[in-house]
Amino acid sequence: MFKYLKNDIPASIVVFFVALPLCLGIALASDAPPLSGLISGIIGGVVVGSISKSKIGVSGPAAGLAAIVASAIATLGSFELFLSAVVLAGVIQILFGVLRMGVIGYYFPNSVIKGMLTGIGIIIILKQIPHFFGYDTEAEGADSFIEKSGENTFSAIAHVIDNITLGSLIIAALGLIIILFWDNILSKKHFFFKTIQGSLIAVVVGTILQIIFSSTSDFSIDGMHLVQVPVPDSISEFGNFLSFPDFSQIFTIELFTIAFTLALVASLETLLSVEATDKLDPEKNITPTNRELFAQGFGNIASGLIGGLPITQVIVRSSANVQSNAKTKMSAILHGLFLLISVLAIPTVLNHIPKSVLASILIVVGFKLAKPSLFKKMFSLGWTQFLPFIVTVVVIVFTNLLYGIFTGLAIGFVVVLIKNYQNSIFLHKIEDEKTNLVQMTFAEEISFLNKAAIQKELFSLPENTKLELDIRKTTYLDYDIVEILEDFIIQAKNKNISIHLKSERGIVDNPKSFIEFFKLKKQSI
User: Fold this and answer.
1) 424 pLDDT band (50/70/90 cuts)?
2) What is the pTM of this model?
């Protein structure tokens, strides 16, 4: 794990700067104390990061839970009672892990997962545009179309032109230029520029400029446009900012209902993020989902006990981690430690960071999640992939993340029914231990509902296996399964597994790409 510190330390710093305003903003959007967001960010990094087996996933407070949290605090009447619900939610998540409910994550269609990633990318860009220009009426981290201020995503952008903060705009534009120039040009020139992330340089330059601008009237930036971390007079006083759970109503139906809702929604968001993050992972590692539910459960217990918000694995931070070339979970752990150290030691320094320079970082993250080329690719795969994808994107942008995911899932299942994908016998397997030969024969129709079983069979193959994969009788192979086969190529190379593929397109040994192979025309008999 320490072998890749040269990758993980720079990545953790970028994730730290992404997480800092989101933790504060999500707490504000949840009607909770500002420190509660930072506490959950710290616990998500250090506690969940340590227990989880996800190599690149990052956990913390989630914008998708903000509305539920705000409603729960209002219903229960106090933040301390709400904290007891967070603790109970953690216990329920551990129970979900015991019951092995993590398998649910494997049944989300890839088209919906890609739609979720793209929708989040677009939301990040749209929500950060006002902050980029220094128009900070909405908290960082908000993801709902209708904002608490009464505006919506697009009306807030429209009002930017009349509310530009010149100093913020200059810093944001310079930060964006630095990041793009660093990532696209300098990083290809010398190893140093790969080790130090452009995002870090942008933040340092932006903070220095903000301090310089503070002595001028034209470019001065007000406190509302800067990061706002609570500042204690001493470390001992820091304890006064903490809140602790009130367990007096722990056995009431009302509190249990809130706890179960938090556990269920947080678990679904986590499983979706795990699936999405594993898709982004260049090394195609597979995260054990039941272990992840355990980790999240323990994280929420710890967070609730010391005054933090509910925790999930979060795709924005996780994708920033991937884009920054993180290799192990040390990056997630270190980002949590950086949050802790900075809040304790240098809160006044953090409060000089302009929100606009952090917006420039997030806009780059958002664009990498929602590249225009992905729309073209999904369209080319046909309506069965494109329809759930585009519906998920549109609903996320015009409502919120949860509505988008569930709508996309509903469309995905309708597509399954229309195409009659399901088949009760989808895989026939024969093993010969003497020759290390494993023969797998796919049935006529394979849907994304078969993802979990096929992925389990392929990725559990031992080293030096000779895999004979027969798909000659398969008339329909869902694209989700094709992507699993594509990801398996990397694992096969790492485990010295040879692949002998039999299909109507021909017989191939160790195909370089299953995606390209299935584009070939079937051979006539």
Assistant:
1) very low
2) 0.75
